[in-house]
Amino acid sequence: MANVENRKSRWYFGGLGSAGAACFTHPLDLLKTQQEGKVNIVKSTLNIIKQQGILALYNGLSASILRQLTYSLTRFGIYEVTKQAVSKDGQYVPFYQRVGIAALAGACGGFVGTPADMTNVRMQNDIKLPPEQRRNYKHALDGLWKVARYEGVSGLFRGAGTATVRAVFITVGQLGFYDQIKMLLMQTSFFDDSLKTHLASSFLAGTIATAITQPLDVVKTRAMNAKPGEFTGVWHIVRYTGRLGPLGFFKGFVPAFVRLGPHTVLTFVFLEQLRLNFGILQQK
């Protein structure tokens, strides 16, 4: 039997893992979006279920999956391929190099995933708007088509700058720190390449990623959800948010952690299981 610690991940495993995780965490993502209002997360959940049924918690699921199959597939793919390319004879890549690789991968993934990300945010936001103001996209592809038709192709990339910057930080927090934490844990006698290590590493990486990306996430959500002409640019949104006080940049932090934490854990658990069972066997 092959040594499971001697398998490399295939470039697309991260995208598949992220898409699988989204199927479980999408309701948490949707509820995080609702925090733009004054209703707390528990009351918001109950209101949605009472008014529209439990399936309403999965509004925009198609856009969420499409986002992972563009955004996460790109960033995980670039990160994994580049990391393996610079690794000599399977040696561990230094942390500073992995941070640089993660930043590059995140930038590419953030830009590529912007159209699906914007559609995802809009479909989730529909649930809290009055019926006459809803966009009523049938699914992700319908949303992309309507944005391109009525707002132009450039409209698909509204908020791309903020999304790209945010993706850089979240990819560094998730991928770069996950590898580093996993390596440190496995250097002790208490951890090996097992589910226990994957859970601990991914939980800590998710915590770090949430902390460094929440301010950008607040700005990104406002940019993507803004009506045409509401803001003149990113700095206009930053100034607007700043007037709410320093905590304005961390609005919805707890729901963001509740969503990003489990998604990060599930993503890496799925990724590692794919690697251990279907990864590329390294020859020694």
Automatic annotation (TrEMBL):
The record's section on Gene3D superfamilies has:
Mitochondrial carrier domain
The ranges of the Solcar repeats are 9-85, 93-184, 193-277
Question: Would the keyword Transmembrane be found if you checked this record's keyword annotation?
Answer: yes
The protein's matches in InterPro entries, at most eight in alphabetical order, are given as: MCP_dom_sf, MCP_transmembrane, Mito_Metabolite_Transporter
Q: Which keywords, in A-to-Z order, does the entry hold? A: Membrane, Repeat, Transmembrane, Transmembrane helix, Transport
Subcellular location per UniProt equals: Membrane
What is stated as this protein's family in its record? Belongs to the mitochondrial carrier (TC 2.A.29) family.
- Can you say what this protein is called? Mitochondrial dicarboxylate carrier
